[in-house]
Design a protein that fits this description.
- The complex is a heterohexamer, with 2 copies of chain A (99 residues), 2 copies of chain B (121 residues) and 2 copies of chain C (116 residues).
- With 99 residues, chain A is α/β, with parallel strands linked by helices.
- Chain A has helices at 14-23, 47-53, 61-67, 82-92, and strands at 2-7, 27-32, 57-60, 78-80, 95-98.
- In chain A, strand 1, helix 1 (14-23) and strand 2 (27-32) form a beta-alpha-beta unit.
- Chain A is globular, with a radius of gyration of 12 Å.
- Chain C starts with 6 loop residues before the first strand and ends with a strand.
- The chains are: A alpha/beta (99), B alpha/beta (121), C alpha/beta (116).
Chain lengths: 99, 121, 116, 121, 99, 116
């Protein structure tokens, strides 16, 4: 089963949740949205944790751009706009976990 | 094949949190792609539907929510949350198309959608 | 889609008291029974603080009683408890503690996840 | 010696955040000890003053804010925040004693208090 | 000068702020209120940081009690109720920094 | 107390965009001039993200311009910037970076501190 973590603010328990799902052989993706995009910023002390999870990371392009952190991203994210966010949510993943 | 339906729970009010903007863009795009959308306004989320909001011109929340309702989005608002905040239980303080109901209607939405997203604070 | 009875996880990750979100999770868990869904109340992260039996339960007592009267079970992530130095005997009676496998199974078996 | 005055900025609405309860207990105690209190309602803080709130009986927000106003607390509410949320600029949607004003009045409060506390989200 | 940190939610920059003031020979006290009281809980990973600051820590008694963490406090706090909170704010400290 | 013109610090610690609190800090900083206070805009913690010159400034441009037209200076904590790997050349022109002594001095010299 494919889970999409819709992450809009903090990173509390991200490893706990993603790790459990991965070790149970599920596919997991993380969508950084709103303040969630700071998790990929080089100033965030938790970005290493996210990197180690080794899962696809999507980041909302409008939210990265308005915050001016495009050149500061330290995680290999796929930038997505609303059409792709809808597609991830409705088609590419089976179930959403909002955090 | 029937298009899937998206369910959303929103618990934050407009202006203070970015959720309402993301909500509009996300839902509007889902509609454009042909998906159905059902929304439950919970806790401060009911404030999004309040009539006569007069924010800065680039954030016309009433027009945006009205637009979504006119395009067929189902909006249910938590009744207890509505009366707690001093708004009319009939829905008279809300944009047309928002129905004041309760958690049973929320549970109904949950049973009718293919994907579910929570927008919390 | 046509209305379908589902397995619904109410995932509580917020702390109690500071905001009302945690308490509203309990309420929503009860609400799911209104349409005959199976309701699965799961506490993770700081949400587990809401399971301390020493807590003032006035905001959740009614929902907790109703949820349990429908045979609803309170679930907590073992790891979240351990990370917060919360031992099982500090929790309400009847809390089921899920290890990593249990957490993964819960996310798989519940068809809808609603976060508070 | 003249008693000191406490200034408070509150930016959260009732119910969702614990701030409003802490605010009431804190301000009521300060009044009981003889201090003056001046309050600016900013952003979602203006929602605290909304009339006809009907929450659970142990959280009678209107009565509590009215009680504080009657005891002499000065309440100013941000006008832009008030109209953005669809409330009457005259203050007609708010409990008596709350004046809809602006940041100049906020700056006035800041100049008139001995201690200042911010209650944010 | 005596500063009181009114701490109601998070501990971001607490060392930064308190440390700067202490090293400039100011007196600093920390008042934990609302969710701020979790900072003294034995489950909070930042409580050590607070302990090391070596400043008086006050904790709002009603907020500790309702959360049921009285027996879990790992920091030597002085429990205070509203009359003492008002006294701290209006008399015992000169200036409040809310965080 | 009788009205007194004061030195007022607007202490911005919240992140921009996710909530409006950060932007309202800029507005409040301008508002202080309405009663002839001295207004001291200070960014600490995640608040420093609001000083990235690559940021979309549409929400704060008007306040920023007005604040600066009153000779207001933007201040940032050196340590907050360093902890977030933000170098001075990423910031708006004219931001004054305060080391630990500067931060302590700012808290001492400003008579009122308002947090956003």
């Amino acid at each position: 089963m494919k889970f999409l973590i819709w992450l809009s603010s903090e990173c509390q328990s991200l490893e706990e949740m993603v790790g459990a799902l991965k070790r149970a052989n599920h596919e997991v993706g993380v969508l950084l949205i709103q303040d969630g995009v700071y998790l990929a910023d080089r100033g965030c002390s938790h970005s290493d944790e996210l990197k180690k999870l080794d899962v696809p990371v999507y980041a909302s392009k409008p939210h990265v751009e308005e915050r001016g952190i495009m050149d500061r991203l330290v995680i290999d994210v796929k930038l997505v706009d609303y059409p792709e966010i809808v597609d991830l949510t409705m088609e590419q993943y089976d179930r959403i976990i909002s955090t | 094949m029937e298009k899937k339906t998206l369910g959303i729970l929103i618990m934050s009010g407009p202006y203070t949190f970015q959720n309402s903007h993301t909500f509009y863009n996300f839902v509007r795009t889902a509609l454009d792609k042909g998906y159905g959308v059902k929304v439950f306004l919970f806790v401060d989320g009911v404030n999004n539907a309040k009539l006569n909001q007069d924010p800065s011109p680039d954030e016309p929340m009433n027009e945006r929510f009205q637009e979504l309702a006119d395009l067929g989005v189902e909006f249910q608002a938590c009744g207890l949350c509505t009366s707690a905040r001093g708004f009319d239980q009939s829905g008279a303080d809300f944009i047309p198309g928002v129905e004041v109901s309760g958690l049973t209607e929320f549970a109904e939405i949950v049973g009718e959608v293919d994907r579910f997203v929570t927008l919390s604070i | 889609m046509e209305f379908t009875e589902k397995k619904v996880m109410i995932l509580v990750r917020s702390r109690p008291f500071g905001t009302i979100i945690n308490f509203e999770g309990w309420r929503a868990a009860v609400g799911m029974f209104g349409m005959d869904h199976e309701s699965f109340l799961m506490f993770m992260g700081d949400g587990v603080y809401a399971l301390l039996k020493s807590m003032d339960v006035k905001h959740v007592m009614m929902f907790k009683n109703t949820y349990e009267s429908f045979d609803g079970v309170l679930h907590a992530s073992k790891r979240s408890l351990e990370e917060r130095n919360i031992s099982p005997d500090e929790l309400f009676d009847g809390v089921e503690i899920l290890d990593e496998d249990g957490v993964a199974k819960a996310f798989t078996e519940n068809e809808v996840i609603i976060t508070f």
